[in-house]
Task: structure prediction
Amino acid sequence: MLSTFLNHQWLAFWRSRGKAGTIAAQLILGFVLLYIIGVSILVGLEMQEIIEKLLPGKSVMLVFNGMILYYFAIELIIRLQMQELPTLAVVPYLHLNIHKRKLVNFLNLRALFSAFNILPLFVFFPFCILHIGSNEGSLVCCMYLLTILSFTIFNNYAALYFKRISAQNIWVVLPGLAIIVAIGLLEYLKVFSIAAFSNIIFHEITVLPPVAIVFPILAGIMFFINARFLRNNLYIEELKSGEQKKSSTDYPFLDRFGTAGTLAAMEIKLILRNKRPRATVAKGLIFLIYGFMFYKPRFIASAQFHMMLFPAIFMSGSTILLYGQFMFGWQGAEFDGLLSNKVSIKTFFKAKFLLLTISATLLTILISFYGLMSWKILAVQFAAYFYNIGAGTVIVLYFATSNYKFVDLSKGTSFNWQGVGASTMIMALPLLIAPYVIYYPFSLISPYLGLAALGLIGIVGIFTRNFWTDFLVREFNKRKYKIAAGFRERS
Amino acid sequence: MIIEINNLKKIYAGRTVVDIEKLSINPGETVGVVGNNGAGKTTLFRMLLDLIRPDSGEILSKGINVASDDQWKSYTASYLDEGFLIDYLTPEEYFVFVGSLHQLSVKDVTAYLSQYQDFFNGEILERGKYIRDFSKGNQNKIGISAALMQDPELLILDEPFANLDPTTQMRLITHLKSLKSGKLTTLISSHDLNHVTDVCDRIILFEKGKVIKDLYTNENTLKELEEYFSH
Result:
């Protein structure tokens, strides 16, 4: 039975409608994967030399032990973003004479075929076998391998489990995000260290190898939690996550903006109620940890704002960039209706400005917590914020007037290139390069002046918004038939 | 004259889809547009709503070219296909949205919808579903009733009877007839000859984009049409 399922999947892939695109995507993905595997093998084999070179004077074992849990913590976050859920393919089999257990087994087995599950083996196994095996004996080495394998499997099913419950109830994402941010913050403030914790675990394994038995047990528990959840929820409605009653919602706050507010409220509903825009915006939230990676104390101390400008623009404008990229394709399905309704194009654009401004404002408030590190960060972020809402929005909406690709709202985001067109590809360039063009000449005098110039451009953009709206309406009217026709092609 | 079409042409890949030299529609008329697949009915409707650019010619609505000015939107309501519905909204939300564009309060919308209870047959409101989860027939009902709610002077419906159950079809016919007394101008396309001749007082027959027949309905119209379509 399992082989029949695999065969069907194989056929589904080869007979899919957008085959050329899928194959091209898979090929590129395959090359990227091969490259990553190659690098992993090299890193795995040369682990000792690499550690000695990068961190001279530190004990290789200490660094290696500390690294393992760190790797898996980051891997879990990446998995939550990218790992595919093999669920929907199962729907046509549910009404047939096949035991549910078999379907669940198939889904669980297929979930193991993921690049995420191979990489740690390449990265960690060579060092374990070559180094730990000869120094600490084969029992310790085996326990290391067992523990790393268990972490891999644990992560695999944990990621799938969280993706599944978050597909049913979007709000579980919030505590999850809070935990990630909290751990990141603790790590940053040096209160708690994943590396130190990892060290304790693996030191314990070296001293007392049988302790490692705990980890396969944990992995097994995760596997069973996931399998049980799947078995209990293997119904069409639940796979589609649509069983709870949908109620009407209002955003009274937006009423004061008139029709533009009504349209913006609708687009908020579009984002919250459809998989792809929801995932796109959620992705923007994940990027909020960029600050921890880019805001280095030495950059802050020496006011090297060019190093901090990119993350600031990206974090405060992630919705403008990621969501705006596919505009108006999100509304492709009802575009004819929007055009023939009593909505003027100008109002339509005002609603877009409103939506993007609100989202950038919320994000900027969120990332203001980085201000705890230094007030300079706040200065960078507010300059970026004004640039984003004053100039970034105009750039994005301008590119949107030459985007003719309909976006399928019901699909996921990972490696989903449906809806990507020429305009979506090049849009990010001006949006991210322009700030540097503005900042650089002034920063030669003083980096603070550079920031002021950037913020000022944004503020000018906000005050001349009426002009830009008229400009966008003209551009839109030039191409509106082409846009509407493009959205009618749904393949 | 509410609609005036002059030398309208639309060509797709070398094939003329719509080719109307002159056609005018008077206020208060209920016009049925009939023709086989590919006759250009939907393309014409889309051009009427400024969704497709004509290759040449113009459509005047109350004397103003629809492609140059949005004026017509304030008195025109339409439902062509599911592309007119916002499928991630509940029907209630959609009605309130469309109502708000015409300055109708939530109360007005509720009051309006209450008169459609028979038409909805208890299947549309308070079902706790998004529009995308409704059947095609019920989506049709939502679109048509949202169009009627706008209290338009010009109503454009593309195959409104398709996908509807027989009872609802009858109810829709009665309702469309009851609207006829006012100054409402209606354009309906349909493949159901019985229904259009029943509802409309003027029938325009299209073939390959051209107007073949333009007649005011009388007792012989149905026969005439059946004759055309049977050969």
User: Anything to note?
Assistant: Chain B touches chain A at residues 46, 49-53, 70, 73-74, 76, 78, 80-90, 92-93, 96-98, 100-102, 128-130, 133, 150 (CB under 8 Å). The beta strands of chain B are 3-12, 15-25, 30-34, 56-61, 64-65, 76-79, 154-158, 185-189, 202-207, 210-216. The first strand of chain B starts at residue 3 and ends at 12. Residues 1-75+154-231 of chain B form a domain with the Rossmann fold fold (CATH 3.40.50.300).
